[in-house]
């Protein structure tokens, strides 16, 4: 009678060993494949026994990330628009300075032309008399 009980115990022990090996491989696979945060969420899912709490937390986290991303995008956009307005004002000031210089140079050129004409007239008059 001892012999049949040994035969039955060995397969049960062997089956338990197989289950232990498979469970260990599953745990090892979770550690290697899943990042730490995913592993925590998997562990939480196993502990809570459902996905409702996890989905609500994930949804809230996604909303927070979306809100933060949206705010950061608005801040960056505002900074870029401010920089563009600053560049436009600087360019406008430079153009105003250049145009004022051109106007003053135009006046100087006109005065030089008048003086040149006066000198030519004077030379022509003095050349004719001689």
Automatic annotation (TrEMBL):
The keyword Membrane applies. Keywords: Membrane, Transmembrane, Transmembrane helix. The chain crosses the membrane at residues 64-89. The keyword Transmembrane helix applies. It comes from the Eukaryota. Residues 37-56 are annotated as: Disordered. PANTHER family: LEUCINE-RICH SINGLE-PASS MEMBRANE PROTEIN 1. This is LSME1 protein. It comes from Eulacestoma nigropectus. The gene is Lsmem1.
């Amino acid at each position: 009678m001892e012999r049949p009980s040994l035969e039955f115990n060995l397969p049960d022990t062997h089956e338990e060993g197989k289950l232990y090996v498979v469970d260990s491989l599953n745990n090892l696979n979770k550690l290697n494949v899943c990042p730490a945060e995913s592993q925590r969420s998997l562990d939480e899912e196993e502990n809570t026994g459902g996905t409702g709490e996890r989905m609500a937390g994930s949804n809230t986290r996604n909303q927070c990330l979306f809100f933060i991303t949206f705010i950061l995008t608005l801040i960056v956009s505002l900074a870029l628009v401010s920089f563009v307005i600053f560049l436009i004002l600087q360019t406008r000031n430079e153009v105003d300075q250049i145009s004022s210089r051109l106007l003053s140079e135009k006046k100087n050129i006109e005065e030089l032309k008048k003086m040149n004409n006066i000198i030519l007239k004077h030379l022509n008059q003095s050349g004719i008399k001689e």
